[in-house]
TrEMBL record:
PANTHER family noted in UniProt: FERRICHROME IRON RECEPTOR-RELATED, TONB-DEPENDENT OUTER MEMBRANE RECEPTOR
Keyword Amino-acid biosynthesis (UniProt): no
SUPFAM superfamilies: Porins (SSF56935)
Protein's name in the database: TonB-dependent receptor
Organism, as annotated: Pseudoduganella buxea
Gene Ontology biological process: iron ion transport
Keywords: Cell outer membrane, Ion transport, Iron, Iron transport, Membrane, Receptor, TonB box, Transmembrane, Transmembrane beta strand, Transport
GO terms for cellular component: cell outer membrane
Compartmental location: Cell outer membrane
Presence of keyword Ion transport: yes
Length: 178
């Protein structure tokens, strides 16, 4: 099923700063105001179709577009310093946020994915060896173990299925570029 038409208006901005040689800060944001301009004859959500005497279709004109959070932003900061033996070490932090969105084209309330924010941290060391560059880092994603849904969808007979986001995850990255 295709929606008749929709409109998406918005703005995005990003700023990258390096206030000193050792500090870098990045901030980005997106505002997305997206809605159906003409969606008469839409599939109705389960809360409507499972009610007594449901309509054959619904009119979602003027409603928010699915899978389109209104606000998304992230910010990160990194501090690095020179260490012994020509090594450069760093620590970093990142925060990312996404506002709520509908998970399905019928805008079912059951599939409304709540907004969430996630914090991540990292630390590591960089260097050069035999003509290549290497990095060793440890990182912690979803540092505060936020429970969140990446997507929710309609199932059979009014049920809802979904994909949960990653829990707190600790990892190590070793990279070599030659």
């Amino acid at each position: 099923m295709n929606a008749g038409s929709f409109r998406s208006r918005g703005a995005e901005a990003s700023v990258a700063l390096a206030p000193t040689r050792d500090w870098s800060v990045d901030v980005a944001a997106v505002y997305n105001d997206a809605w159906y301009t003409d969606y008469d004859g839409a599939r109705c959500p389960p809360d409507v179709t499972l009610a007594p005497k449901p309509p054959a279709s619904c009119n979602l004109s003027g409603e928010r577009l699915f899978n389109a959070p209104r606000l998304t932003y992230n910010a990160s900061a990194r501090y690095s310093w020179n260490g012994a033996g020509g090594l450069r070490s760093f620590v970093g932090a990142r925060y990312a946020y996404r506002s709520w969105m509908y998970g399905t084209v019928d805008n079912a309330e059951f599939t409304r994915v709540p907004g969430y924010g996630l914090a991540s941290f990292s630390a590591g060391t960089e260097g050069t060896s035999q003509g290549g560059a290497w990095t060793a880092s440890i990182w912690l994603n979803n540092a505060f173990d936020k429970t969140y849904w990446r997507r929710l969808v309609n199932g059979d007979y009014g049920s809802v299925g979904g994909w949960r986001g990653e829990p707190r995850t600790l990892g190590v990255t070793l990279a070599y570029q030659y």
